């Protein structure tokens, strides 16, 4: 299983970007996904998370501006980022819980995978 994150780039404050994270390989689906970011000189922090059948959750500073979504058929998790601020600058990483096997009783088995980061730079 491999994850490919994309969509980062340079944008002015107030602009928007849409990040994508696609799982490929032996994948039956994506149960959950999350986005983290790491600003220069800072620790990696959780930005948003979505789970199958559960609520989405956001870090306080991005609430109302970022939207995480999941397309299981496309094995993809997105992060729509609007009203970007310079403090949103950083490397964004995705982590997906990938379903790799379905048991005879319908139980799903999988594990978490990390994608390589995609750089987001917001200029003031």
Describe this structure in words.
The chain has 124 residues and is an all-beta fold. The protein contains no helices and 11 strands. The protein has strands at residues 2-6, 9-12, 17-24, 29-38, 45-51, 57-58, 66-71, 76-81, 90-102, 108-114, 118-123. The strands form 2 sheets. Strands 2, 4, 5, 6, 9, 10 and 11 form a 7-stranded mixed beta sheet that branches. A 4-stranded antiparallel beta sheet has the order 1-3-8-7, with no helix packed on it. 31% of the residues are buried.
What's this, in brief?
By secondary structure, this protein is mainly β.
How would the blueprint of this fold be written?
Elements: E1 2-6, E2 9-12, E3 17-24, E4 29-38, E5 45-51, E6 57-58, E7 66-71, E8 76-81, E9 90-102, E10 108-114, E11 118-123
Parallel strand pairs: 2-11
Antiparallel strand pairs: 1-3, 3-8, 4-5, 4-9, 5-6, 7-8, 9-10, 9-11
Structural class, from secondary structure content? mainly beta
How many beta-strand elements?
11
Strand content: over 45%
Main sheet record? 7 strands, mixed
> Could you name the ranges where pLDDT drops below 50 across 5 or more consecutive residues?
none
Name the helicity range.
under 10%
Q: In angstroms, what separates the terminal alpha carbons?
A: 38 Å
List the total number of helices: 0
- Summed over residues and divided by their number, the pLDDT gives a mean of 95
Oligomerization state: single chain
* Shape, per Cα inertia axes: elongated
Order of helices and strands: EEEEEEEEEEE
Rg (CA only): 15 Å
Task: Name the features.
124 residues; seven-stranded mixed sheet; 11 strands; single chain; mainly beta; four-stranded antiparallel sheet
């Amino acid at each position: 299983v491999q994850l490919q994150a994309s969509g980062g780039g340079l944008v002015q404050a107030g602009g928007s970007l849409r990040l994508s994270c696609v799982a490929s390989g032996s994948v039956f689906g994506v149960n959950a996904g999350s986005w983290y970011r790491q600003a220069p000189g800072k620790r990696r922090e959780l930005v948003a998370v979505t789970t199958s059948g559960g609520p989405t959750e956001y870090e306080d500073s991005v609430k109302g501006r970022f939207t995480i979504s999941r397309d299981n058929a496309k094995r993809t998790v997105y992060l729509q980022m609007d009203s970007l601020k310079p403090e949103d600058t950083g490397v964004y990483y995705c982590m997906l819980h990938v379903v790799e096997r379905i048991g005879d009783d319908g139980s799903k088995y999988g594990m978490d995978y990390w994608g390589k980061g995609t750089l987001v730079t917001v200029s003031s």
